[in-house]
Design the sequence.
């Protein structure tokens, strides 16, 4: 072994060991755990543990709440990703305008919610969304819309949580888009302007292709993020009303750490993993087709 | 005429930027003003935005009464605050010690298996952490780490992203610089400490911020691994207080301020590192 090689292992060895112990090993064990009936009985005495093959998955597919959680999570992602990315892109385009002053100030302020604690701000939003005393219903009342029972009505609970999540995370993609927009070729924009392209036409044919790859990356990361929603429903609604905000992770947590069905919960986590991988693969393919990757 | 139109446009876009910022900051400002209202004062229609009388009573209850005469309160903020600070600081320190040298090794040192390991690390980025949580819980139970601070910190030390992030920054350092030092007889450790570390200091600050805020705001794992209330981190304690005091808006806002304020105090002065890091480190191409 050369001196350099020895040094490299001293430098990289510890973190590789940590990754092996805290990530690789547990993920491998998750595959095994998902095939067992690990429950409170096995937790008390390992002798009660049985290998059940794919029973956990079969059982999950027979559980209505699991399908409900899957549907809710899909709905969160389907509505949330366009909403969050749209908000980010709008803010980035606004701040990209040459006439806007104090850009760094707006940028930092709009980014601030991203670094706050989900739990703390979810509590604030619970308060903002309060049916009688919340500021949101008050604002709606001023334009003549009757109060909405945001967190008590199953039809309003997902939009309510999405409103909060969008507020919290849109600053992240805004920053990423800001960087992408600054790389849009200026000569191309000028040429389009001289050719008489409208504002929309310039956005559609110059800006959009230039920021395409960034847009795709943001979409991939946002989908993964929305599929992992947990703290928001846990703090704001506890999965209610009428189980309308039970997400896959919420289901996993309940199954695993309230009912101690760790085998079942592990199967749920694996399904979530496969879903995230699948959606990412599809997005990558779409991206390739449009030559964004 | 043209000048005038440009002025109107400038006013409009600046107004829009200010309005957007105002709306986004409103929840945070309201959180602070309501936290200073006396109990029950915010439960009025129309919702009051400014306290009629500024009161410290919510903070007094959370930070003082619950600490000194807390026997009959279930959840306490002060121990949770100390736990969160300690855990986040330790996680940051250990995280840096583990990942920064590794990032350097992956960028600049030649060793067998480097490329293969690098590919594996990139692949590991797509694994959602929640998949590992249930087996980790069982492993930690065997090791007696459930309900311990070590149990909270350890999983975070598997810093796949951090290693790649540091590597990206170190790649920019010219090889000639390191080779020159080697010819002068400097050992690898010496090169790392006296040449590489100073050059990547800004990236290290950024990474420290990422790890600190990530640890501070983490919720699901501490919720799983901690069972003893005196060991709760802030988010877990605040969520628990929420379950007892859902109706006490003012008290909950004070708890939110206590959780959010330290983060903003760290973020605001260092924001250019954080925001810059989002772009520099993002996995591009």
Sequence:
């Amino acid at each position: 072994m050369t001196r350099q090689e020895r040094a490299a292992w001293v430098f990289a060895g510890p973190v590789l060991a940590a990754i092996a112990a805290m990530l690789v090993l547990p993920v491998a064990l998750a595959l095994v755990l998902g095939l067992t009936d690990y429950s409170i009985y096995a937790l008390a005495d390992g002798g009660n543990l049985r290998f059940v093959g794919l029973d956990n998955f079969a059982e999950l597919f027979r559980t209505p709440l699991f399908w409900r959680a899957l549907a809710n999570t899909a709905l969160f992602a389907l509505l949330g990703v366009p909403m969050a990315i749209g908000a980010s892109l709008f803010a980035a385009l606004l701040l990209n305008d040459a006439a806007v002053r104090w850009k760094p100030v707006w940028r930092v302020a709009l980014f601030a919610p991203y670094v706050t604690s989900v739990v703390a701000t979810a509590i604030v939003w619970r308060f903002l969304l309060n049916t009688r005393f919340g500021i949101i219903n008050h604002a709606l009342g001023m334009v003549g819309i009757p109060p909405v029972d945001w967190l008590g009505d199953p039809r309003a609970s997902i939009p309510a949580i999405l409103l909060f999540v969008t507020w919290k995370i849109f600053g992240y993609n805004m920053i990423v888009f800001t960087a992408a927009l600054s790389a849009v070729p200026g000569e191309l924009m000028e040429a389009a302007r001289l050719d008489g392209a409208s504002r929309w036409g310039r956005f559609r044919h110059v800006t959009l292709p230039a920021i395409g790859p960034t847009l795709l990356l943001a979409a991939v990361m946002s989908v993964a993020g929305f599929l992992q929603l947990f703290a928001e429903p846990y703090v704001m609604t506890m999965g209610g009303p009428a189980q309308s905000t039970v997400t896959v992770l919420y289901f996993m947590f309940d199954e695993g750490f309230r009912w101690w069905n760790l085998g079942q919960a592990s199967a749920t986590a694996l399904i979530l993993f496969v879903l995230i991988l699948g959606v990412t693969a599809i997005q990558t393919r779409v991206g390739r087709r449009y030559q964004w990757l | 005429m043209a000048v005038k139109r440009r002025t109107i446009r400038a006013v409009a876009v600046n107004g829009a930027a200010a309005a957007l910022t105002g709306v986004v900051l409103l929840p945070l400002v309201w959180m602070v003003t309501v936290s200073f209202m006396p109990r029950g004062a915010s439960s009025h229609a129309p919702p009051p935005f400014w306290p009629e009388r500024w009161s410290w009573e919510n903070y007094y209850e959370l930070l003082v009464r619950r600490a000194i005469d807390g026997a009959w309160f279930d959840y306490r903020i002060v121990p949770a605050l100390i736990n969160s600070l300690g855990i986040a600081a330790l996680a940051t320190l250990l995280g840096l010690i583990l990942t920064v040298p590794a990032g350097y090794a992956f960028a600049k040192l030649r060793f067998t298996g480097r490329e293969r390991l690098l590919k594996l690390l990139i692949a590991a980025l797509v694994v959602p952490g929640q998949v590992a949580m249930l087996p980790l819980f069982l492993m930690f139970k065997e090791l007696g780490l459930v309900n311990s601070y070590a149990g909270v910190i350890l999983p975070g030390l598997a810093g796949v992203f951090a290693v790649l992030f540091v590597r990206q920054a170190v790649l920019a350092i010219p090889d000639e610089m390191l080779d020159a030092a080697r010819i002068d007889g400097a050992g690898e450790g010496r090169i790392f400490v006296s040449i590489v570390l100073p050059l990547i200091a800004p990236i290290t600050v950024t990474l420290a911020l990422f790890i600190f805020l990530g640890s501070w705001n983490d919720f699901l794992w501490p919720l799983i691994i901690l069972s003893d209330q005196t060991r709760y981190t802030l988010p877990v304690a605040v969520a628990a207080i929420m379950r007892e005091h859902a109706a006490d808006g003012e008290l909950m806002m004070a708890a939110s301020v206590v959780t959010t304020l330290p983060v903003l105090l760290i973020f605001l002065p260092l924001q250019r590192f954080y925001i810059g890091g989002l772009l520099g480190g993002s996995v591009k191409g």
